[in-house]
Design brief:
The structure is a single chain. The chain is α+β, with helices and mostly antiparallel strands and about 375 residues long. It has helices at about 5-25, 30-50, 85-95, 120-125, 130-140, 170-180, 205-210, 210-225, 280-305, 330-335, 370, and strands at about 60-65, 70-75, 85, 145, 150-155, 160, 165, 230-235, 245, 310, 315, 325, 340, 345-350. Helices cover about 40% and strands about 10% of the residues. The strands form six sheets. A three-stranded antiparallel beta sheet has the order 1-2-3. The chain is rod-shaped and about 150 Å long. About 15% of the residues are buried.
């Protein structure tokens, strides 16, 4: 069996011979006859190539008739057997990319039969360094329009998304930060703003356009929106915003950051009450805290007005005259015969009317409690 590389060279030579005969066959009967013979030979070679499982495509470079501009010049033979010159190849690429010679110019098809043209074919006529030059010239010469503010400018002033829509960095930044502030931070929410375009904005572009502070905020929003399941939840410290995963039913939280003041004080993961109210719901704790605050304010008012509360019912009393031995007259306390000292607020009995005021008596300004004397 003939080797594939030798067979491939023979096919290339045969194709070149056919190209030359094609130019002469129009007015020469002998050349036309030779063309038929050479064509039959080529078919035989191709059959041999199939038998030898030759799978490489052949691109022949030589002076032939371009299938597009009809000029005799240096061309390559495309997989569809149409010949194309460099000038026509550049024209097809320019048309496909809108004159910018961007990525889309490498996804072209033969304009005669719509067969895709490979990059190998393209680079054989337009090398990568030349393509880069064309791209620079094409993008700097043509003005672009921002799809947000609609102002025009050179390509260097724009950010180009994967969908080929272009925006000023400031306009794109404003669009992204508005979405982030509204907690729209997922890939299906940060999209190209061009009407009808739903292509997600690349993460690298987002990171480059928005501020570091805003990107940090974006990351935190994304973490908070992750569904961690029913077993765990992500909790942030209310002081330094460090965080970690904790059980969903945890009753206390310690900040993982050693430099934070909350690293040693456990707080409630839900309401951030300090210290944590283990065994009580947040609602119960709020009510108790509110009651305690009200009680503290009431006691402060009682002291400021030099009043005294009944130790049994809590009703505040202001003494106008008489001794320091008080009798509560509220219905419940009157029935229970409740007495107390107006000086220290301690509940005492009728028998202690005088004994509780040993030093100065019940009309004095001190009692056993303030004097440090046992009853």
């Amino acid at each position: 069996m003939e080797k594939a590389d030798t067979l491939g060279k023979r096919i290339e030579l045969q194709i070149n011979a056919l190209a030359d005969l094609r130019l002469l066959s129009a007015g020469d009967p002998k050349a036309a006859k030779s063309l038929e013979t050479e064509t039959a030979a080529l078919l035989a070679l191709l059959a041999s190539a199939c038998e030898a499982k030759l799978t490489t495509r052949i691109s022949v470079t030589g002076k032939n008739l371009c299938s597009f501009c009809k000029k005799q010049c240096k061309t390559i033979s495309l997989p569809c057997m149409h010949a194309i010159c460099k000038e026509c190849m550049v024209g097809v690429m320019s048309k496909a990319s809108g004159g910018t010679f961007g990525e889309s110019c490498l996804r072209i098809k033969c304009e005669k039969c719509a067969v895709p043209i490979s990059r190998k074919n393209i680079f054989s006529l337009v090398p990568p360094d030349e393509l880069y030059r064309l791209n620079v010239e094409g993008t700097t010469a043509k003005p672009f329009s921002c799809d947000i503010c609609l102002m025009e400018g050179p390509a260097k002033d724009f950010v180009t998304l994967e969908c080929d829509h272009r925006f000023h960095p400031e306009c794109l930044k404003a669009h992204l930060e508005t979405n982030i502030k509204e907690a729209k931070v997922q890939n299906d929410q940060l999209l190209c703003i061009k009407e009808g375009c739903k292509v997600p904005i690349d993460e690298a572009i987002i990171h480059a356009v928005i501020s570091a502070e805003m990107y940090d905020r974006l990351s935190k929003f994304r973490i908070r929106q992750i569904d961690w399941g029913k077993q765990e939840a992500f909790k942030y410290c209310a002081k330094c915003e460090a965080g970690l995963l904790i059980p969903i039913n945890a009753e206390e939280f310690l900040c993982p950051s050693e430099g934070c003041e909350m690293h040693t004080v456990a707080v409630c993961p839900n309401c951030n009450s300090k210290p944590a109210h283990k065994g009580k719901t947040c609602e119960q704790h709020r009510k108790e805290t509110a009651d305690a605050e009200d009680e503290a304010k009431f006691n402060e008012m009682v002291r400021a007005m030099k009043m005294q509360k009944c130790p049994r019912c809590g009703i505040a009393t202001e003494k106008v005259s008489g001794c320091m031995f008080m009798t509560c007259t509220t219905p419940a306390c009157k029935k229970a015969d409740v007495h107390y000292c107006y000086i220290c607020g301690k509940q005492i009995t009728q028998a202690q009317h005088f004994s509780h005021f040993r030093r100065l008596g019940p009309f004095g300004v001190s009692c056993n409690t303030t004097d440090g004397v046992p009853d």
